[in-house]
Design brief:
It is a single chain. The chain is an alpha+beta fold. Helix content is about 40%, strand content about 20%. The protein has ten helices and ten strands. The chain has a five-stranded antiparallel sheet with strand order 1-8-3-6-9, with helices on one face. A five-stranded antiparallel sheet has the order 2-7-4-5-10, covered by helices on one side. Strand 4 and strand 5 (about 55-60) form a beta hairpin. Helix 5 (about 175-185) packs across helix 6 (about 185-200). It starts with 8 loop residues before the first helix and ends with a helix.
């Protein structure tokens, strides 16, 4: 049975403190079915990796990132292996100046330390010191820049057939024209509909799917060379170049930064 991350009343009730936070570590994987709540939620991982399902989108949350989920937004959550993470719940009336759509952000040391402090509070009304710390969390979220950790899902059944096949085998390097023939589409139609329904070209969608899968595999401790081969790259250098263009750093440095931030939270 999935244990509660935080007292249910601090998630569902408009009463109580305007901000409540919690941290949780468990040895088994964590899975929460689709649900929503009146409070906005900022969630992140301390170690490992989580995925969040939002409408027709799939988000991946590595340990150095967090996902903002506005009030009343239906979502599901699951972790890959053991779970260690945190969540902040903010009353709806304090979300007016926060992002109105879900977004991924890269956490800062200031945000993480403020959340860590907030997670020790008992769930009562905040005193002056606690209020200042809670305001720091809100300010850091409001000032954060959006990062691309989402994979949109198309609606056209033919495109879904392609994306599902790709997701099951990301090493499949068939060209757009070959996928179009396989799904019974003209190449130009496939290209156009991909952009219309996902906001990404076919090539961009496949690269994003590979990037998110790379983060999942890296969270499980898989070697960079193995990840590159599993995702269909002919050599490690090509994979590293893709990773650097997407996240601004190499896989090795990214994982080193994740490990450093995770250790600082221990």
């Amino acid at each position: 049975m999935t244990s509660y991350l935080i007292r249910p009343d601090l998630v569902t009730s408009p009463d109580g403190p305007f901000l409540a936070a919690a941290e949780l570590t468990q040895d088994e994987a964590r899975a929460t079915p689709s649900h929503s709540h009146a409070r906005g939620q900022l969630m992140g991982a301390l170690s490992g990796l989580m995925s969040v399902g939002l409408d027709k989108q799939h988000w991946v949350v590595p340990a150095v990132h967090a996902i903002w989920i506005p009030p009343h937004c239906v979502h599901s959550v699951r972790s890959y292996g053991p779970f260690s993470g945190w969540s902040v719940f903010i009353t709806e009336h304090r979300c007016a100046n926060l992002p109105s759509e879900p977004r991924a952000i890269r956490t800062t040391p200031l945000l993480r330390e403020a959340v860590r402090r907030a997670a020790t509070w008992p769930g009562a009304e905040l005193d002056q010191t606690q209020t200042r710390i809670a305001e720091v969390v809100i300010d850091e979220l409001a000032a954060s820049k959006e990062e691309s950790l989402v994979l949109p899902r198309p609606e056209d059944a033919r495109l879904i057939r392609i994306t599902d096949a790709l997701a099951s085998d990301l090493s499949d390097n068939r060209r757009l024209e070959e996928w179009a023939a396989w799904a019974g589409l003209a190449p130009r139609t496939l290209s156009r509909r991909f952009v219309e329904e996902t906001g990404l070209s076919f090539a961009q969608w496949r690269q994003q799917a590979r990037l998110l899968r790379a983060l999942e595999l890296a969270a499980d401790g898989v070697a960079v060379t193995t990840i590159a081969l599993e995702l269909g790259y002919d050599n490690v250098s090509a994979f590293i170049d893709m990773f650097r263009r997407a996240l601004g750093t190499t896989p090795g440095r990214y994982l080193a930064a994740e490990g450093k931030q995770t250790r600082s939270a221990d």
